[in-house]
Design brief:
Layout: H1 12-30, E1 35-36, H2 38-45, H3 49-56, E2 69-70, H4 71-82, E3 88-93, H5 97-103, E4 113-120, E5 129-130, E6 133-137, H6 141-148, E7 152-155, H7 159-172, E8 176-179, E9 192-195, H8 198-216
Parallel strand pairs: 3-4, 3-7, 4-6, 7-8, 8-9
Antiparallel strand pairs: 1-2, 5-6
Helix pairs in contact: 1-4, 2-3, 6-7
Amino acid sequence: MATNFTFRATPQPTIKRIPAYLAILKELELAGQITVSTTDIADRLALNPIQVRKDLSITGITGRPKIGYITTELIAGIYNFLGWHNTKDAVLVGAGALGSALLGYKGFAGYGLRITATFDSSKKLIGKTIHGRVVAPINELEDFIRQSAIRIGIITVPAEAAQDIAYQCVRAGIRGIWNFSPVKLAVPHQVVVQNEDLSSGLALLSVKISEKLSADSR
């Protein structure tokens, strides 16, 4: 008998909260705390314990009555859900200020991401070593992706160059793009794009500051 199955994607708000849970769990693990409750996690993040319990259910790890979750088990469950237990190689295109900052961020290793190479079109940057990677010319990008079987591309180029770089990445076999350029990329349906809109983040921060200052002045 056939079984009806409906795929349900994990809600984005849940995915965005998971790293915050992981950070807390790692702190507790370092402090020697063997178990943790949803209430403890919720209190630290000003969330509802029911929401935390629902979010953590996607890991497949269940808590024990009156005991809670085993800290190490929950950490492992989160890593497994996020796929951070297996290192994924990526290329970065755009070795300017933002790209250089990402290259220098050592925290990616803890998230299972390794930037193996970086590319740029600037003659001033090509051949330069940035945080241990020698900047290669753009015309070598596609061959490198194919030969190294890279599946993640990080784009930090100006808006006018972003779409062309995305095309090159997709042609070479990239399946996921982390886009820091201020444009919406057109890619085939089988390619995932995660946009990081810095202007939106700054806009939210500016408005919140204005609202806070306005409230404090009353």
